[in-house]
Amino acid sequence: MTVWTDVLIWVLATFVIIGAIPVAAGLYQFLLIPFHAIRNHYPEAAPYFPRVAVVVPAWNEGAVVGASIDRLVRLEYPPDRLRIYVVDDASTDDTPQVVLGRAARYPGRVFHLRRETGGQGKAHTLNHGLSILLAGAWVEAVLIMDADVIYQPDSLRKMTRHLSDPQVGAVTAFIREGGVDPPYLTRFIGYEYVAAQAAARRAQNVLGVLACLAGGAQLHSRENLEAIGGRIDTTTLAEDTVSTILTQLDGRRVVFEPYAVVLAEEPESIGALWKQRLRWGRGNVQVTRRFSGLWFRPSKHRGLGGFSFGIIWFSVFLLPVAMVLSSVGLIGLYFLDSDLAMTIFGELWFLALCTYLFITAMTVQLDPATGRRSWREAIAFPGLISLLVMLTAFAPDLFTRTVPGFFGLEMTAIGEGVITLFLYAWLSLCMPAAWLAKVVEKTKLGKVLAPALIYLVGYGPLLCAVTFDSYIKELQGAAQVWDKTEKVGKVMA
Amino acid sequence: MTEPQSATRPAPTPEPATETVGFDLPDEARLRAEIGADRLHERFLVRAALVAAILVAIVITTRMIWP
What we know:
- The structure holds 2 protein chains of 2 kinds.
- By secondary structure, chain A is of the alpha/beta class.
- Chain A has 19 helices and 9 strands.
- In chain A, β1 (52-58), α2 (65-73) and β2 (82-89) form a beta-alpha-beta unit.
- Chain A is elongated and about 80 Å long.
- By secondary structure, chain B is mainly α.
- In chain B, 54% of the residues lie in helices and 3% in strands.
- Chain B is built from 2 helices and 1 strand.
């Protein structure tokens, strides 16, 4: 072996290790969760009922906005301290009639603010409402929500109790998937929301820094909103993340309240999910670029610029890149040092197996109702094929010798090589395979093939594929369209 | 950005019926007790982590003794 071969082996091994970083970061984040039992904001919280203006951006939300208003006026909150402002973004459906009907039914509590020209997106709509609200003196806090979400009766007062601490600028709630009899994809989303919110945001509470206020449930103090400019960012597709970061950069805390539960309707088709997540993914690319001087610079901000938060942020943001690098590293090592490749492959997937088990076991316990409803999706989250690959951590010869031997077959050397290379490449191949599910969903057999592919390939790889697409769309400078996710009002009453 | 859209019809006249709903300010002691209860409830996270850790420990042990 030449020196250059040795160097190449080191480089390829490093690629594989980079692939392990997001896995380790995921495990680290979940290991932080139990510390929320002692490190949380409850000691500083106190009963507090500021005058809250609920801002509901609505663009053709006639099917859902009425039920949302009915729920809002029944919140366990002093009626004289709660007003609902529906900012109608030039809707062309029956949104105005529905809202004005509710305004008449609940006089002095529901208000209809109409934009005569609209379609520019949620942030512009919110800013129309905020400019009116902040011009008056009544408002002490603003709750920004989506028209389709349903707040549990005690959710708002559980959020406002954190604002009693002047150090807190904003509070977010737990958005739970709330569809009635949800199909397979929505059950995946329900499980994902528990992992990404009830779990991960508790970990971020422990770190003292939050990545993102949920767009459908963000409560700001008036002081905070005015400090970040009195308006919502309109330059990116992730206005909620920008507000979160600006709040913390301005010296105020952002708190996640896990017992404030908000039900939301989520997409039922891969196409609709892809559209929604592409918007989120592109927003994250834009936010990463906008705050490029912040990451891994504790001098800029102790939390947001800290190493822990940076690793967590980039582990999500660059997960597809890490997966591709890992595959490239393993395939390269296979040709240079196949024993080393097999060893690293086994350790990488064993780490993935341990992380998967820990995360899954934690997540189903954090929200047992969702755990019971989505247990199949919890198991199949990384994909059944990936679960089989994890088994090779126990038995490296499982697919090349053990399984063929079970059928009395003996694999040829070429066959062994092909299967080994497939296993090494799977971390990358799972993304186009997940994209294929989106393609076949539109075909005649889509109702059968698309779910089968998602269970086989995994919901996690589907999200990675969308993230990859968001890189491409940003690189291409694709038009920044605020595609609204279609809602039909199927949230549990 | 998408093209701005114009409303195609004016907002209609609201219905006259009214309804009074709401919630009276709860007793402060009860609200403080609720905060304390939520804080205490967070201890379940430790139990959840222990269960998850035991599961992982079983898998690690199995791998170590795997032939």
